[in-house]
């Protein structure tokens, strides 16, 4: 069992093989943990019964069953199986605990994970004491996170993310200073003893963990090892407290020689690490993630939050870890950065034995990078060999296969039961024992021989081979896979305009910021009619948000004309809508989604209508009426922000990066809802799936060979005006082949970035 000292709810993890697992063993690099339970407990880890390091000590009052009952259970008797060198995609609904599981792994809270395992972690939300430091560095064995050094440049900050390298380099500096820059042997003795003491404290920490997690004969051995470790630490503390005049000359000589030998060993380790030029790799990764060469030397502290997170990602990517965990890595990247990251990770899987675990709402990203999918559902982990699209196709095929088998068997059972009733009736009436025996035989077949008719290998089921031993049920019942109950999204239709005309038009729009000569928008022409689907893509900083603000009227233009239909109702979702919504209710922390909608409606909407609107977007029941807005998840905030827009029943929806806080299930539901919306849509997004589905009107299907292809929807969908534009250099460029054309145009730049250095 393990938990972390923190002011937030603690994570408690247990597993079936805790007592027998050797925490120091590295083995093949695979992870195989059975019977894993993870609970988020409201009890703080600083209560009695926990180690200073954060590992919970077993006590009779804090057993497994009680711990599980005192919090929210994320996993129950699940199996965590990860193979070295494989890239996994972790999928599950918002709120099921994906980030909690990743955090438990990164902080080594799961008992079966070896302490020597190196784990790098990019987290979606900052949970460490220092937010950005925790996101950028290794989760160290003592639970501490690297700090953000003041005055470091972007490049220096990323290079300092490798804790194992930093630790070796730090020891070398301490010993070199003591041996070379001072003439006092006593300073050298103090330096070697301090390093030795730190290592003994680390060993004591591991011994405490083993002693608290093991029982029986292994527990006795672990407790003996703990006493020995405590004795060594006490002896080391006594040596540190020793005064110079108390130390004999031969001891000085011996300790000095030990310092020289340790320095030579450390230097050899550091030279081996320098075979890979960390500066070269850091520069390559930063450029791939969107930094310019000149910006690598600017102070890290001058960066905005989004660019700091890119630095954090670069720090994670360059580490030589055994497991790399990336939680929503595409949130702060434009399409160039996403495609670069896809290629970088795909290339690394061929040359590295590293386990990679990804959580992302970007379906294309998961399909490209992941070799296997881990599904978190009903507090269990299931595994599928293949990418996300292949998994969904397999689920549909399984539903069809088992559905047909169950339907056929239900018909067979119904026919047999009818025959049984007729034979029983006829046998009793005529006294025909053959009819009664026949009815009894068929009833036995219905009771014992109905169910799954195929073996695990797909062949015909044989009882003595496929189900040996005693069983209450002779065969397993046929279970048809069902869709996981998820959020359904429905968007109300736009009202009639009464008379025709374009909803909005831009003619020869020019825009530049005051004091600057460069044009952000240069000759923009855009016309949107009712029912149109328009997608705008482009790299970060190209002016997409400025264009949208000019459309909605929040930003004036330097030159040109923006015309709107006189009856136009416009709904605008900004890329920071979720964060702005949370800030807007800070003055009234008790505000709920329902009360917010009713207050803004100013009597135009009754409670029933407000609940109906929120329910159509997935905010149902007490979530809408009882949970404060400040406590809603990112995905729920997106839905609430969308509800505020849809309350006015707009003719034109302008959505700027709406998928950022959503899981991929919700993105699919949103895409389906937007596709059936009768009003006009303008989407700005880096999500290729969303643009292809909503704007281009295409769906992912599979042909007879199993290859993915895109099919266009019905005639009604084809009749819509559908255009994908790329904003570059202030100009809108129509993409005749849609997203695919833009992807290909970025391919050459991605290849150059991968070859940098």
UniProtKB/TrEMBL annotation:
Highest taxon listed in the record's lineage: Eukaryota
ABC transporter domain boundaries: 57-403, 504-754
A Pfam family this chain is assigned to: ABC_tran_Xtn
Keywords, alphabetical: ATP-binding, Coiled coil, Nucleotide-binding, Repeat
Record membrane topology: Multi-pass membrane protein
InterPro entries: AAA+_ATPase (IPR003593), ABC_tran_Xtn (IPR032781), ABC_transporter-like_ATP-bd (IPR003439), ABC_transporter-like_CS (IPR017871), ABCF (IPR050611), P-loop_NTPase (IPR027417)
Keyword Glycoprotein in record: no
Compartments, record wording: Membrane
SMART domains in the cross-refs: AAA (SM00382)
Molecular function terms from GO: ATP binding; ATP hydrolysis activity
Listed Gene3D superfamilies: P-loop containing nucleotide triphosphate hydrolases
Any Gene Ontology CC annotation: membrane
Coiled-coil annotated spans: 219-246
Protein name: ABC transporter domain-containing protein
Source species of the chain: Polytolypa hystricis (strain UAMH7299)
């Amino acid at each position: 069992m393990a938990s972390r000292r923190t002011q937030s709810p603690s994570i408690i993890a247990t597993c079936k093989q805790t007592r027998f697992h050797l925490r120091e063993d590295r083995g093949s690099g695979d992870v195989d943990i059975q019977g894993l339970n993870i609970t988020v407990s409201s009890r703080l880890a600083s209560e009695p019964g926990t180690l200073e390091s954060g590992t919970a000590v077993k006590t009779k009052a804090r057993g497994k069953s009680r711990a599980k009952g005192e919090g929210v259970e994320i996993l129950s008797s699940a199996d965590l199986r990860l193979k070295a060198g494989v890239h996994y995609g972790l999928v599950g609904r918002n709120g099921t605990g994906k980030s909690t599981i990743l955090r438990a792994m990164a902080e080594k809270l799961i008992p079966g994970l070896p302490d020597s395992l190196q784990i790098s972690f990019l987290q979606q939300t900052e949970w460490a004491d220092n937010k950005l430091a925790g996101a950028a560095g290794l989760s160290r064995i003592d639970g501490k996170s690297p700090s953000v050094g003041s005055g470091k440049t972007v490049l220096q900050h990323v290079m300092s993310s490798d804790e194992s390298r930093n630790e070796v380099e730090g020891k070398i500096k301490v010993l070199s200073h003591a041996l070379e820059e001072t003439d006092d042997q006593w300073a050298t003795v103090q330096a070697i003893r301090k390093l030795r003491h730190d290592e003994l404290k680390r060993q004591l920490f591991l011994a405490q963990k083993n002693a608290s997690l093991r029982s029986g004969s292994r527990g006795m051995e672990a407790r003996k090892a703990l006493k020995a470790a405590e004795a060594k630490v006490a002896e080391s503390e006594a040596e540190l407290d020793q005064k110079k005049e108390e130390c004999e000359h031969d001891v000085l000589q011996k300790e000095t020689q030990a310092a020289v030998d340790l320095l030579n060993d450390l230097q050899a380790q550091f030279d081996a690490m320098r075979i890979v030029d960390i500066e070269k790799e850091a520069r390559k990764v930063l450029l791939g993630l969107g930094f310019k060469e000149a910006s690598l030397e600017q102070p890290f502290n001058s960066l905005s939050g989004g660019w700091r997170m890119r630095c954090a990602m670069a720090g994670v990517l360059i580490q030589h870890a055994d497991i790399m965990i990336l939680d929503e890595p595409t949130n702060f990247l434009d399409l160039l950065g996403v495609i670069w990251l896809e290629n970088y990770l795909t290339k690394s899987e061929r040359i590295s034995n590293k386990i990679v675990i990804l959580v992302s709402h970007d379906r294309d990203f998961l399909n490209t990078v992941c070799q296997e999918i881990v599904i978190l559902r009903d507090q269990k982990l299931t595994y599928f060999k293949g990418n996300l699209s292949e998994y969904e196709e397999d689920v549909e095929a399984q539903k069809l296969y088992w559905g047909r088998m169950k339907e056929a068997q239900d018909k067979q059972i119904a026919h047999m039961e009818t025959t049984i009733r007729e034979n029983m009736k006829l046998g009793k009436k005529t006294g025909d024992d053959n009819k009664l025996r026949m009815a009894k035989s068929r009833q036995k077949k219905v009771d014992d021989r109905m169910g799954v008719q195929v073996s695990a290998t797909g062949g015909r089921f044989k009882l003595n081979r496929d189900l040996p031993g005693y069983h209450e049920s002779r065969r397993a019942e046929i279970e048809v896979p069902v869709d996981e109950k998820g959020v359904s999204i429905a968007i109300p239709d736009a009202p009639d305009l009464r008379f025709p005309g374009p909803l909005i038009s831009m003619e020869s729009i020019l825009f530049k910021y005051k004091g600057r000569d460069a044009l952000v928008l240069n000759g923009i022409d855009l016309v949107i009619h009712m029912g149109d689907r328009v997608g705008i893509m482009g790299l970060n900083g190209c002016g997409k948000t400025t264009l949208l603000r000019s459309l909605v009227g929040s930003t004036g233009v330097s030159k040109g004309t923006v015309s709107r239909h006189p009856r136009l109702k416009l709904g605008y979702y900004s890329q920071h809508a979720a964060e702005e919504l949370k800030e807007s209710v800070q003055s009234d922390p008790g505000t709920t989604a329902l009360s917010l909608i009713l207050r803004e409606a100013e009597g135009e909407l009754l409670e029933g209508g407000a609940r109906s609107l929120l329910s159509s977007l997935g905010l149902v029941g007490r979530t809408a009426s009882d949970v404060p807005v400040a406590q809603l998840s990112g995905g729920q905030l997106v839905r609430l922000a969308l509800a505020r827009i849809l309350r006015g029943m707009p003719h034109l929806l302008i959505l700027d990066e709406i998928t950022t806080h959503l899981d991929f299930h919700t993105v699919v539901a949103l895409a389906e809802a937007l596709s059936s919306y009768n009003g006009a849509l303008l989407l700005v997004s880096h999500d290729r799936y969303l643009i292809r589905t909503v704007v281009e009107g295409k769906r992912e299907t599979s042909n007879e060979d199993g290859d993915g292809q895109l099919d266009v929807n019905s005639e009604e969908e084809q009749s819509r005006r559908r255009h994908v534009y790329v904003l570059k250099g202030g100009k809108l460029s129509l993409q005749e082949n849609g997203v695919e054309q833009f992807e290909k145009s970025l391919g050459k730049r991605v290849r150059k970035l991968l070859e940098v250095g």
